[in-house]
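Reply to thread "Modeling small-molecule complexes from scratch"

Following up on the discussion above, here's a worked example others can learn from. I took a protein sequence and the SMILES for magnesium ion and predicted the complex. Inputs first:
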Amino acid sequence: MAEDNMPIFYPTIDVRGVCDITLELLGRLGVRALILDVDNTLTTHDNPVPSQGVREWLAKMRQAGIPMMIVSNNHYERVKPFAQLLGLPFVEDGRKPLSSGMSRAAQSMGVSPREIAVVGDQIFTDILGGNLFGAKTILVQPIELEDKPFFKCKRFLEKGVLRRYQRRKTR
Ligand SMILES: [Mg+2]
Protein backbone atom coordinates (compact mmCIF):
# COMPACT_ATOMS: atom_id res chain seq x y z
CA MET A 1 0.00 0.00 0.00
CA ALA A 2 1.27 3.48 -0.86
CA GLU A 3 2.55 5.54 2.02
CA ASP A 4 0.00 7.95 3.40
CA ASN A 5 1.49 11.43 3.02
CA MET A 6 -1.61 13.27 4.09
CA PRO A 7 -1.63 13.17 7.92
CA ILE A 8 -0.78 16.85 8.17
CA PHE A 9 -4.30 17.41 6.83
CA TYR A 10 -5.96 14.98 9.24
CA PRO A 11 -7.57 16.12 12.46
CA THR A 12 -6.60 14.44 15.70
CA ILE A 13 -10.25 13.69 16.06
CA ASP A 14 -13.52 14.66 14.38
CA VAL A 15 -16.87 15.41 15.97
CA ARG A 16 -20.26 16.57 14.79
CA GLY A 17 -20.08 19.99 16.45
CA VAL A 18 -18.44 21.87 19.32
CA CYS A 19 -21.09 20.68 21.76
CA ASP A 20 -19.76 17.13 21.31
CA ILE A 21 -16.40 18.19 22.72
CA THR A 22 -16.47 16.94 26.29
CA LEU A 23 -14.07 17.38 29.18
CA GLU A 24 -13.50 13.65 29.05
CA LEU A 25 -12.40 13.95 25.41
CA LEU A 26 -10.06 16.83 26.21
CA GLY A 27 -8.59 14.80 29.04
CA ARG A 28 -7.99 11.89 26.72
CA LEU A 29 -6.21 14.16 24.25
CA GLY A 30 -4.16 15.82 26.97
CA VAL A 31 -5.67 19.17 26.07
CA ARG A 32 -6.21 21.97 28.56
CA ALA A 33 -7.00 24.97 26.36
CA LEU A 34 -9.00 25.61 23.21
CA ILE A 35 -8.54 27.79 20.15
CA LEU A 36 -11.90 28.24 18.48
CA ASP A 37 -12.82 29.14 14.93
CA VAL A 38 -15.94 31.27 14.43
CA ASP A 39 -17.57 30.86 11.02
CA ASN A 40 -19.31 27.54 10.61
CA THR A 41 -17.87 26.35 13.93
CA LEU A 42 -19.60 28.49 16.57
CA THR A 43 -22.22 29.90 14.21
CA THR A 44 -23.00 30.20 10.50
CA HIS A 45 -21.14 32.64 8.25
CA ASP A 46 -21.50 36.27 9.30
CA ASN A 47 -24.23 35.36 11.78
CA PRO A 48 -23.95 37.56 14.90
CA VAL A 49 -25.73 34.97 17.08
CA PRO A 50 -24.06 31.76 18.32
CA SER A 51 -25.59 28.43 17.31
CA GLN A 52 -27.85 26.49 19.60
CA GLY A 53 -26.12 25.00 22.60
CA VAL A 54 -22.89 26.95 22.12
CA ARG A 55 -23.38 29.25 25.12
CA GLU A 56 -24.14 26.31 27.42
CA TRP A 57 -21.14 24.42 26.10
CA LEU A 58 -18.87 27.43 26.65
CA ALA A 59 -20.20 27.79 30.19
CA LYS A 60 -19.38 24.16 30.94
CA MET A 61 -15.82 24.55 29.61
CA ARG A 62 -15.37 27.78 31.54
CA GLN A 63 -16.58 26.19 34.74
CA ALA A 64 -13.96 23.49 34.29
CA GLY A 65 -11.29 26.16 33.93
CA ILE A 66 -10.48 25.54 30.26
CA PRO A 67 -8.96 28.72 28.77
CA MET A 68 -10.52 29.49 25.39
CA MET A 69 -9.74 31.96 22.69
CA ILE A 70 -11.16 32.70 19.28
CA VAL A 71 -8.76 32.77 16.35
CA SER A 72 -10.62 33.68 13.18
CA ASN A 73 -9.40 34.49 9.70
CA ASN A 74 -12.29 36.91 9.46
CA HIS A 75 -11.82 40.63 10.03
CA TYR A 76 -12.13 42.74 13.17
CA GLU A 77 -15.63 44.07 12.47
CA ARG A 78 -16.96 40.54 12.19
CA VAL A 79 -15.04 38.89 15.00
CA LYS A 80 -15.09 41.52 17.74
CA PRO A 81 -18.85 41.80 18.39
CA PHE A 82 -19.27 38.02 18.25
CA ALA A 83 -16.38 37.36 20.61
CA GLN A 84 -17.63 40.02 22.99
CA LEU A 85 -21.09 38.55 22.99
CA LEU A 86 -19.59 35.27 24.17
CA GLY A 87 -17.10 36.93 26.49
CA LEU A 88 -14.15 35.35 24.69
CA PRO A 89 -10.79 36.96 23.94
CA PHE A 90 -10.00 36.89 20.24
CA VAL A 91 -7.47 37.23 17.46
CA GLU A 92 -8.90 38.53 14.20
CA ASP A 93 -7.20 38.14 10.80
CA GLY A 94 -5.68 34.99 12.25
CA ARG A 95 -4.07 33.90 8.96
CA LYS A 96 -4.64 30.20 9.56
CA PRO A 97 -2.97 27.94 8.37
CA LEU A 98 -0.05 30.19 9.37
CA SER A 99 0.89 30.01 13.03
CA SER A 100 1.07 33.71 13.90
CA GLY A 101 -2.51 34.16 15.16
CA MET A 102 -2.61 30.86 17.03
CA SER A 103 0.77 31.63 18.51
CA ARG A 104 -0.52 34.94 19.90
CA ALA A 105 -3.50 33.14 21.40
CA ALA A 106 -1.32 30.44 22.96
CA GLN A 107 0.95 33.05 24.50
CA SER A 108 -1.91 35.02 25.89
CA MET A 109 -3.41 31.86 27.42
CA GLY A 110 -0.02 30.80 28.73
CA VAL A 111 -0.35 27.31 27.28
CA SER A 112 2.02 25.42 25.00
CA PRO A 113 0.77 24.34 21.57
CA ARG A 114 0.64 20.63 22.37
CA GLU A 115 -1.77 21.29 25.24
CA ILE A 116 -4.13 23.15 22.92
CA ALA A 117 -6.79 21.84 20.62
CA VAL A 118 -7.57 23.94 17.58
CA VAL A 119 -11.26 23.54 16.79
CA GLY A 120 -12.61 24.35 13.36
CA ASP A 121 -14.57 23.29 10.30
CA GLN A 122 -11.94 23.68 7.58
CA ILE A 123 -9.19 21.23 6.68
CA PHE A 124 -6.95 23.71 4.87
CA THR A 125 -7.05 26.45 7.49
CA ASP A 126 -8.02 25.17 10.96
CA ILE A 127 -6.75 21.60 10.77
CA LEU A 128 -3.64 22.10 8.66
CA GLY A 129 -2.83 25.22 10.69
CA GLY A 130 -3.33 23.54 14.05
CA ASN A 131 -1.24 20.54 13.01
CA LEU A 132 1.60 22.71 11.72
CA PHE A 133 1.43 24.72 14.94
CA GLY A 134 1.95 21.53 16.94
CA ALA A 135 -1.49 21.56 18.53
CA LYS A 136 -4.14 18.86 18.63
CA THR A 137 -6.90 19.42 16.10
CA ILE A 138 -10.63 18.83 16.32
CA LEU A 139 -12.62 18.94 13.10
CA VAL A 140 -16.29 19.87 13.37
CA GLN A 141 -18.80 19.47 10.59
CA PRO A 142 -19.61 22.86 9.05
CA ILE A 143 -22.90 24.09 10.46
CA GLU A 144 -24.12 25.11 7.02
CA LEU A 145 -22.52 24.51 3.63
CA GLU A 146 -21.41 27.62 1.75
CA ASP A 147 -22.75 28.47 -1.70
CA LYS A 148 -19.88 30.68 -2.94
CA PRO A 149 -17.80 29.08 -5.74
CA PHE A 150 -14.49 29.51 -3.86
CA PHE A 151 -15.88 27.64 -0.88
CA LYS A 152 -17.49 24.96 -3.00
CA CYS A 153 -14.09 24.30 -4.50
CA LYS A 154 -12.44 24.10 -1.07
CA ARG A 155 -15.11 21.74 0.21
CA PHE A 156 -14.63 19.57 -2.86
CA LEU A 157 -10.90 19.31 -2.16
CA GLU A 158 -11.59 18.64 1.52
CA LYS A 159 -13.74 15.68 0.56
CA GLY A 160 -10.76 13.87 -0.95
CA VAL A 161 -8.75 14.37 2.22
CA LEU A 162 -11.65 13.37 4.46
CA ARG A 163 -12.23 10.16 2.53
CA ARG A 164 -8.64 9.12 3.14
CA TYR A 165 -8.82 10.18 6.77
CA GLN A 166 -11.98 8.17 7.36
CA ARG A 167 -10.49 5.15 5.60
CA ARG A 168 -7.39 5.30 7.78
CA LYS A 169 -9.50 5.70 10.89
CA THR A 170 -11.35 2.48 10.21
CA ARG A 171 -8.23 0.55 9.36
MG1 LIG B 1 -14.69 28.26 9.77
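What I'd highlight from this example: Residues 37, 39-41, 120-122 surround magnesium ion (CB under 6 Å). The radius of gyration is 15 Å. Questions welcome below.
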